[in-house]
Amino acid sequence: MAEPIFVAKNERQVLNLLPNMANRHGLIAGATGTGKTVTLQVLAEGFSRIGVPVFMADVKGDLAGVTQPGEDNPKIAKRVKETGAKFEARGCPGVFWDVWGEQGHPVRSTISEMGPLLLGRMLNLNDTQRGVLELVFKIADDNGLLLLDMKDIRAMLQYVGENAGQLTSYGHMSPASIGTIQRGLLTLEQQGGERLFGEPALELEDLLQTDAQGQGIINILAADKLMQSPKVYATLLLWLLNELFQRLPEVGDPEKPKLVFFFDEAHLLFEDISTALQEKIEQVVRLVRSKGVGVYFVTQNPIDIPDKVLGQLGNRVQHALRAFTPRDQKAVKSASETFRVNPAFKVESAITELAVGEGLISLLDDHGAPLPVERALVRPPNSRIGPITSDEQQKIIHSSVIYGHYEKAIDRESAYELLQKRSAAAAPSAAEKTSPTPRIPLGTPQPPRKGPQRETVMEAVFKSAARSVASSAGRQLVRGVLGELLKGK
Known about the structure:
The chain has helices at 36-49, 74-83, 111-122, 127-142, 150-162, 175-190, 230-247, 275-287, 307-310, 326-337, 347-353, 390-399, 415-426, 451-463, 472-483, 485-488, and strands at 5-9, 14-17, 26-29, 54-58, 94-98, 105-106, 218-222, 259-264, 293-299, 315-318, 358-362, 374-378. By secondary structure, it is an alpha/beta fold.
């Protein structure tokens, strides 16, 4: 069995996170400046050391230090003495990712892989508009049109808008809804969304790597710029989580997780979402454990997490909360009631008294039962606390084994190009102006494609791991649980 992860210590005991219980998920909560980032760093180091890959978003730009050896200083020395931890200045192997491709390898998804439900959330669509977007995806599926990037979905919307009268068998698609979707795409594009969609799309296997010494790779998503579009940030992480749920095989209860996923600023995930989508998120969080994935939500206030999700988070580190407002007081009371009682102190009072780096900690025992909550000091990390220099970051990026794979975008034949060809074929030639050729509606069954065109679709199946499958059934499999929501309604 893998070595337990030393998290914190008080005068009575050392508090260890058991690797075989790490996929039972967790919570790191507390007000700004109370020590959440250092706790996250300590856990990430511990997982990496026992060979578990980690994914986390660097919202403030200060988690990159986990890749560099720490520096001994009076504060570190004091915390080492208080916790009895052994300080060994060392960094962890890391890979940097960035939607913009500036601070890491580019992160991309395809439009098809994102699916209409999550894309609709990015565009802030209502139920009617999401229904129209679902029909647009369905029409593309039925006609073998791959939706890979922004120009593909724009071309589909334009075509559907121009030919809505010939596509009534799919349902009513009002010009107003189509116009709203197009405006949403324009706004998303202005926020840099066009960088998110395209190929080569992110391969999940690249998040599940270890180095030559068997240490888990820490994948760091540069999110300081991405956080300027909170809904895009939250939806991207939700898409990643859903992809892990859909694609990883069942492993039951492993000795250690296959991946630990830290969801920072977790409150953004649950803002302005429908009840149905929240239920699907709850389902994914509940079931992804059996795929060997541990999900750790990081947020300021535990009441930002729905109760059904909060109830699934077995390993908890609660840093200080402030009780200045009625909402703060409610959060303190709510947080105190979720811990297993410890008669040595009053939890509700302790939450407001905790010092920086101190936490109320409740971890799972070997049988999966929560231990009584303990008030303890979190151990110091062995890696650097704070950001790294641009030179240090670029050196890690360029030395990565995947460098060069994602850096160059690929623009292969997809919906945009095929619709252009169909439009050109349907346009009257100069000699036939007196008898114009009727436009071929998208809903018309297409003859089987031969030769190179068919090879293009087969390539999509095998090389893109089912991202761009032309058939409706294959596409729905990729979208998985979340992608079926609107169709189910």
